[in-house]
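Lab notebook: predicted structure, single chain.

Context: the supervisor wants predicted structures on file for every construct in the current expression panel, including those that have not yet been purified. This is the next one on the list. No modifications to the sequence; it matches the entry in the shared construct table.
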Amino acid sequence: MIPVQRAFLSRAIAARLFPSRTSLRFNSSILSLVEPPNYSSDDVDRDATDKLPDAKFRSCCPGVPRAGLFLLVSVVQRTLDWTTVREIRFAEAAGAYGFPHAVEAFSMLMGVFSSAGMQREIRLLLAGVLSFVRNVDCDLLVVLSAVVLHAGGSLSSLNVYGTAILLLAEDSMIEHALEVYFEAKRMGLPIGAPLSNLLLKVLVRSNNSEMAKDLFNHMKICGPKPNVYSYTIIMYMYTTQDILDINEASKILDEMEMEGVKPNVVTYDTYIRGLCRAGDVKSAKEFLQDLQSRDLPCNTNCYNALILGFCREGELEKALSVVQEMKERGPKPDVHSYSILIDGFCKSGDVAKGSNLLEEMLSNEITPTMVSFSSLLHGLCLKGEMGCALSLFNQLSGQGYAHDLISYGILIDGYCQLGDLDGASRLWQQMIQSNFVPDAHSYTSIIFAHCRNGCLKEALEQFEFMLYSGVMPSVVTCTLIVDLFCKQHRMLDAFAFLDKMNEWGIVPNIFMFSVILNGLFKEGKSVYTWGVLGSMIKKGIVCDVVIYSILIDGLIKSSKLEEALKLFAGMSKVGLVPNIFVYTIIINGLCKIGRLPEALGLFEEMIIKGFIPDRIVYTCLIDGYCSRKDMKKASELFDKMVHSGLVPDAHAYTCLIDGYSKIFMMETAIALLDDMLKMNLCPTVVTYSVIINGYRKLGDWDKAYEIYKIMLNQGISPDSVMNLSEISSFST
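Prediction complete. Output recorded below exactly as produced.
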C-alpha cells in the first residue's frame, strides 16, 4: 500500500475546495463521502445561524452546494491535520460558500481541534473569523453564539468568549473586546481575573485611562475581585508621564492594604519610579528604606529606579551613594545600575568618572553592554573629543562588540555638532558598508550640520535624498529646514515647505510654529503672525510661555508696546505664569521709551513672585536710567546687582560710562573704564566712543585723542559708531 503524503493531501483538498469560479462543481461521489455531524449546544440560541448575514458572499458563487466545506471538516476529523486547514483563509471560504456556511464549518473545525486539546489551532481559526468580522457589517455577539452552537458541545461558551476577548485585546480592538467581555459577564460566564487584567493592561497601554478606571471599578463591584496584578496595572497608569498622579498611586497602596492584597516587588518598583518621575526622589528613597526596614520585597530594579531618579535630578553623588549601599547591603548592583550611573556622569561632562565606573564594572565581573559604552561615546562627543570617541569606537569593534545605529548615530551627530562634515561623511559611509540603513536621526544630524553652516542648498539635497531613501523625516528635521528658510529671509519658501509637510502627513508642533512666528516678526511682517497663531490653535496646540515671549518681543520691536502689554496681562487669564524672559522683554521695552516707573514696578513684581533677577534685566534698567541721565538710580541698581552676586559685564559698564559721559562726569567714567580693565573685561568700540565723545563735547581734545590712541593700541578700530569728524580731527 502506497502511503499518502499529508502535504499532497492538503494541496489536493485546497484545490478541490477552491477551484476557479467557472468550475466550482462537486460530483455526487465526493458529496456522498460527506456526512456533517449533527452538533448541538445548550449554551446559545438555536437561531444564531439564521441571524448571520449572507450578504454578497454567497451571491458571488451561485449554485455552490452548502456541503462544500464539510469535506474539509470530515478529513480533519479523521486526521487532525492542521496543514490541511491553514491553507484556507476564512475570507476565502466566506467569499466562496457564503458567510453563514463558513462560520458553521470553521466552528466545526474548532470543535474537532478542541476535542484533541489543540488550543493553538482554535485560537488561529477564531482569529481568522474575528479578523473578517471587523471588516464587515456584522453583529460580533451573534457570530460568537453561532461558533458555540456549531462547535457541537466541544467548545464551551466560556472558551469561545474568553478566547475572543483575548484575541481582540491583543489586536487592540478594545471596544469589541469590552463588548464581548460585558456580554460574557451578562451571560453569567465566570470570567476570571487574568482575562480582566489583560483588558486593563491593554486599556492602560493605549492611554484609555477613563475606561481602565471604569473596568477596575466594575471588577471591584461585580467581580472578579482585583488581585495584586490588577492593582499594579492601575498603579502603573497613575505613575506614567501621561497621567502621573502620585496621590492616586498612594491611594492604591492604601486600598491594597485595606483589601488584604499584598503588593509584590513590581508594585513597589512601579511606585518608586512614579515618585522619581514626579521629582520627589527624596520620598522615593525614604519609601525604599521603609521597605527594607519592614523586610518587604524589593530588588535591584527598585534601587535602579532610585539611581535613575537621582541622575535625572543631577544629584549624581546621591546616585553613587545608592550603588555603594547596594554593594554593602545588597542586592548587588547589576549592569543596569552601572549603566545608569555612567550615563548620568557622562551627560554631566564628567567622562573620567564614567570611565572609572566602567572599569569598576569589569573588576566586579559585570560585562558592560553597548548601552554602557554608548554613554561614554556620547559623553566624549559632548566634550568635542572626537578623536577619543573614534578611538573607543574602533577599539570596541576590535573587542567583538557589534555597533548599531545608535552608536554610529552618536559619532555622526558629534561630528555634525562641531561642523565637521568630512568626519561625519566618513562614519556615514562606514555605516552604509556595515549594512545599516540610516534612520531619521542620522539624516537629521547631517541636515543640522548643513543648517548650522548656513548651507541651505546642501541641507535640502540631503533632505531630498532622505525622502528618496524612504525615510520619513521627523518634525524636528523639518523644523531645521524651516528655521534656515526664515534666517535667510525666505518666508515664502518656508510656507511652501509647510504645505509639503502637510502632504507628507507631518504635523507641525509648537517649536515649528515658534520658528515661523519669530521669522515673521524679524521680517517685519507681524500682520501675518495672527493667522499663523490661529492655525496653530486650530491644530489643538496650546500657546505656551515661549510663544507668548516671541509675540510680546515681536510686538515691542514692531513699536506696538500697548498690544504687547495687553498680551502680557492676558497670560494669567489662560493660566500661564510669565517667566523671567517675558518680564525682561517687557521691562526692556518700557525702558527703551522712558517708562521707567512702570519698568521698575514690574521688576519689583518679578522679585515678589520669586524670580531672581539676572544680569540682563539689571542691565536693561541701568541702561534705561542712564539714557534719562538719572545716574543716581542707575548706580543704585548697579551696586544692587553686584551685591546680589552678579558680575557686571562689558555692556553693563558701558551703559554706566555712557551715562556719566553724557553729564560730563568724565573722572567717574574713566574710573569705571579702569575697573573694567582690572576685571579683565574688554571695552568695546562703543565704550571708547562714548568717552571720546564726552571729552570732545567738553572741548578737551587732548584727552579725547589720548583715549583714541589707547583704543587703537588695544587693537580696536573705529567703526560707524564713531563720528567721522572725530576720526579726521585725530588724524590731522
